[in-house]
Design goal:
The protein is an alpha/beta fold and about 210 residues long. The chain has a single domain, classed as Rossmann fold (3-Layer(aba) Sandwich), CATH 3.40.50. The protein is about 40% helix and about 20% strand. It is globular and about 45 Å long. The N and C termini lie far apart (about 35 Å).
């Protein structure tokens, strides 16, 4: 697969209370379990302890909840997303609603994490985001791997997921990243960052960047 192709994903346009959105979010939880993205992020946070953690594109707050449960209580966790604070989010989790390209500018934190969020953005937007991420000491991201095998696997699993996910899953893979692309698009300079990248055959590109 060659160039990235970014098309709107259906879930992004649905009201959070729409039954199709609720079902699609259930699919995403299943996909996260299959890919092991949250488990991997939690492992990285244990390996690289942080007092302050920010999640961009926090959605319904699932990853924030897992971090809150897994890490010691002094850790500060803040979710950033366009939507308002999700119901039943533990009080120990902070939440800022709005465009995280803007709200990031006012954040003071050690670590920024994100799961399946960066593939939504164009190359120019990612370069802009990369500038805003320079204040962090650690960056931990999981994104779709743009490869033929994950795309084939998404087609095989189409009967197990909703109509929305059948559209959005291959769309996210086509908008995903090949090895080496994401760190370059974010403008991470290897003279300033230790960049560790890996990929999984199931379809995840994983990036850890540690400030030197």
């Amino acid at each position: 697969m060659q160039k990235r192709i970014i098309i709107p994903e259906i879930l992004d346009s649905l009201d959070p209370t729409d039954p199709r959105a609720i079902r699609s979010r259930w699919d995403l939880r299943w996909i996260d379990f299959y890919l092991g993205n949250s488990r991997w992020i939690l492992h990285q946070l244990h390996q690289h302890p942080s007092a302050q953690i920010v999640e961009i594109g926090a959605g319904e707050g699932d990853l924030c909840r897992k971090i809150h449960s897994a890490l010691p209580s002094p850790t500060t966790i803040t979710g950033l997303d366009l939507i308002e604070r999700p119901a039943n989010l533990p009080q120990g989790i902070h939440w800022i609603a709005g465009d995280f390209f803007q709200t990031l500018m006012n954040m003071e934190s050690d670590t920024c994490v994100g799961s399946l969020i960066l593939h939504h953005f164009s190359e120019s937007a990612l370069r802009d985001l990369g500038v805003r991420l320079q204040s962090f000491r650690r960056l931990i991201f999981c994104e779709p791997l743009r490869s033929r095998l994950p795309l084939a696997l998404s087609k095989l699993s189409s009967g197990l997921v909703s109509e929305v996910t059948r559209h959005d899953m291959p769309a996210s893979i086509r908008a995903g990243f090949r090895p080496g692309e994401l760190s370059a698009l974010l403008g991470l300079d290897s003279r300033k960052w230790i960049i560790r990248e890996s990929s999984d055959w199931r379809g995840t590109l994983r990036l850890v960047s540690l400030r030197r």
